[in-house]
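hey so i finally got around to running the thing on that chain from the lab meeting. sorry it took forever, my laptop kept dying and i had to restart like 3 times. anyway pasting the input first so we r on the same page abt which one it is
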Amino acid sequence: MKGIIESLPIVAGMLAEQTGIKLTISGNDAYTDGEVINLPLMPASGEGVGTLAFGYLCHEAAHIRYTAMEAMASLQNPLECRILNILEDPRIEHRLMLDFPGAKYRLENLSRLIDNQVHSCEEHIQNGPARLFCNHLLNQMIVSALGRDWVEQDWLNSRAAFCQTFGEATLIKLESITAGTHLKPSTYDLIPVVKSLMQALKDAQEEAKKQAEEQEQEDQSTDQDSGDADQSDDDPGNADADHNAGDQGDAGQQPPSGGDADDAAGSDAGDPAASKAGDPSDDDQGQKPDHQAIADALDALLGATADEFGDDRIEAVKSALGSETKQSGQPRVGMMQTLPADTTGYCDYAASRETSESIRALRNRIRALLQSESKTRHRYLEQGSRLAGSRLSRLECGKTDVFRHTTTRKGVDTAISLLVDQSGSMAEYAGVKQRYQVACDAAFAIAESVEGLKGISLAVNAFPYEIGDQEQTAEIKGFDVPLRKSQKAFSTIQPQGYTPLAESMMAVGAALYRRPEHRKILILATDGDPDDQDATHEAVRQLAKLGIELVAIGIQTDTVRKFFSDHLVIRQVQELPQELFGVLSRLLLSNRH
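ok and heres what got predicted. didnt touch it at all, straight out
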């Protein structure tokens, strides 16, 4: 596939087709409506743009294929929604990589690009409870579910921050509840997990509040005991009584030699825990968790609004992709979606007498061309592996040339995609017919001429195809669809809209590039006035670089020569056979390898 790196839109189209989703390339933003993915206008090349675009495409394709949007919409609480989204992303990416192994490369490249920052424990804490919770849960899923070890250090840091902010018990519950969620069969199966995690957070909050109250009562009791002791020390009467009692108790006894009392004092002095006894603030700093701080953090988390969770990582990808494409410094080109033409209410296309005569003339000449290209020759030699039974009698005469050798000259193996311009400017007259009618006649003549001929596959498309406020490309005849089943679709070709030639050429070119035939030819029938001339030049350049040969038929205009080196101009459909045959014969017979 030499040259594929030089056409990011074509690669994107191939990825979309492989994963079974619909793609458009237009504007400056990446987005999806749940059915169609749109990428911004793209340059021909660029490693950063490609990594972002293909990773985003694969991620959103996974959503379209595997996410139950009804389940996603069933949750209203902002935290529940964010948790479900964080759990759903690795689930769908894991499944896409199982169904389409090539997606692993695209998704991991994207992750290496956007998940490569390492934040310290302090930085995670400074983000606040809501962002810390989401960042750690995301890191945990990326590392544990998808095995992306380049995120491990940030995960360890966010884990330490999580434990410090929400408590070790909450961390253990989080890891236990979310383990194995990427293996769940559907989005609906994640809903109970989300509910269970929410309940665990609420339980942790209540427990933290309870322990905070107990801690406060304990602190107050300790403070009261300390106050009583201080008051006792300040009372002279009690001091004298204690002194006298001590004298009486010590009467007749000698103080310890070496001093057990001294040992006891020394022991306390050397034990940090003992030295800190009676100071609850010291316990809070190193030994005991701050239950009130944990309760406050959980309260802030459970009451957080959507804005407090920070940007979704895919939103960051979309923003970066839009910026990268605009700043690429290269010409950018888009791509339309190709949809089957709606033939409701239309009759079969009826070729005019002139068109029928053109079809017969063209078909006869193409058939002769193909027959001259596909020939089988038999030779009989004295050595070989296949005996010719009809020549064995020659052995009696001493002739041993009875081994049959067959050589076949490779015939025409070509896919042709015909693209018909049906923009508003094609309503102008070309003689007694409007331009679009001449173009339709030409398209039908070519399709009928090659129908059933071995070695040639043909598709016909028309543009623009307006659906609501969107311009797409209409599939009139598919490569593998017989012409008789497409005749109504030819009748749908009617002038409409503008001339998004570049976007339509890229859509048709992407489908043509994926064909198995050795040769690939795109034939355009147009009046040659595209909406964006720079984009049209870029589309021609990219398709030619991919080995697609381009021919333009100008309908009563020679403006096609500005964009296509191979072009011809026809004024009447009767001119088509002679002009087109010359082009086809040259393309089909040249550069054979």
